Amino acid sequence: MKKIISGMLICTVLLNSFSVIASGEELVKTETTGETGLVTQATSETATNSTEDTSSVTEENTSERDSSTSSTKEESLDSSTNSTTEEHSSVSETNTTDSKTEASQSSEVEKKTIDQDEADYQEAAREGTNHKKGTYAMKNGLSSRVARATVANVYANDPNLPGKNFIDVSSWNGDISVAEYQKIKSYGVTGVSVKLTEGTWYVNPYAAGQIRNAKAAGLKVSAYHYSMYVSAATAQDEARYFAQAAANSGLDKNTIMFNDAEDPTLTNNGRNAHANSVAFNQQLKALGYKNDALYVGKWWLTNGYIDTSAFGRDRVWVAQYPYTPDSSMQWNNDHGAWQWSSQMYFPGLANYEGRPFDISMTYSNFLNMGNSSGPDLSKYYTTNPGRVVVMKDETFYNNADFTSKGAAVKKNTLVEVQGIEYSSTGYPRLVTPQGYLTARKDIVLAAISNIDKYYTANPGRVVVMKDETFYNNADFTSKGAAVKKNTLVEVQGIEYSSTGYPRLVTPQGYLTARKDIVLAAISNIDKYYTANPGRVVVMKDETFYNNADFTSKGAAVK
């Protein structure tokens, strides 16, 4: 019987040993750290030692069990009450100690986490980071530049692409002129989102110009902030920093303001990117920027870092780049917008093949970039016309926003233009020596290039130097009476044709203002005969001349 029991115990111990060894092997398969390897080795050694000691342990246990079964039961019964009380006391003390230890450890871990958050934030501030949008949007902690290397280049003149509603730009795009924005707009782009800030340490030095020129080109402008916050408090600080930069850049409080939540700093060390992002957007609202919005990579949504319903999905802009985008794609259409490429090129821009842009399409009315802001620039001069004719009574202003009036300017006045400037709302203005003047083509007209060959101010009276014609309108489309050479004509004023040519307004009709055809009469013309008197008497000795300019003398006259 003892032998049978001993054999059973040996089998039991051996099975337990094999179970431990198997458990150790499973850890190796599921973990790759060095620590796991050490655990496996220690487990194997334990199993080996257990096997070696099996025989002696089994014999001792069997012998003791046969000889002392009854005594053991009695001792257990006699001591049960005391041992139970002692155990409860011991367990209670242990639990109290464990609770204190856990609380202490939890507090210490929390402090270390806060310290680490602060250290990470200060390090980023010292570096003064300036990330490109989408750097991490494709996958947490992994730069999407790897993805960009495999994503196809796309060209704006390709019709088989998803919607091209708006681009986003930062300092990495540099200066973008009005003309360049207009070229981009010609491909169907109607909006631009401009990076203003990052963290609490960086402001895009190109932002003011990028915003001003985009507005001037008639594009709707939004703004974004690259977030680096590690807590609700730092998120609120960054929102205030963003709002101040928006105000400094002339953006009003109706501007769509994106929280670019993509950096791994937001999620490192178990940070609550969702709660901190909500804190950021709520702070924007508290500052009066009600059109707060969110930019986030699809990977973050899939992995639950942020719940977009807390922001309003129509306000969320999702980044996800297909390898070969085409016009049938409408990814992420359960949100407000989809950024589908970082490799969009616009033919017609200078060096366009070296200037990729991020491109997005919109789904929601909230993020719809189709309603462009600013003037219709086709109705304005956007390059210096040199000189313009004021076609109706107007006013000069002391600033580009036309908030301070200057001198009046009369219809048909020719004005020298020194340059073009834009108002804070994107309207082009003519800069003149007298002040700022409207650039509207229905109010001012670019003068012809050879304007100096024409009279542009009323000469009073002119002599027609060759046979000419009067006209019934300034565009010379309807002829009037003929006018003979050397006729003195009264001039009432100057008007301009629809193409910028000056005309003399006379009682007989419109007459050319060309200086080689009509000649301004001398100021004292009334002291001279200007019509043939028939015969005259010479009142003093005089001289005949061989030409009208009296440069060649002829005979004397008594």
TrEMBL record:
Residues 32-137 are annotated as: Disordered. Keywords: Glycosidase, Hydrolase, Signal. Gene3D superfamilies: Glycosidases. Residues 1-22 form the signal peptide. Residues 62-76 have a biased composition (Basic and acidic residues). Residues 32-60 have a biased composition (Polar residues). This is Glycosyl hydrolase family 25. It comes from Enterococcus faecalis.
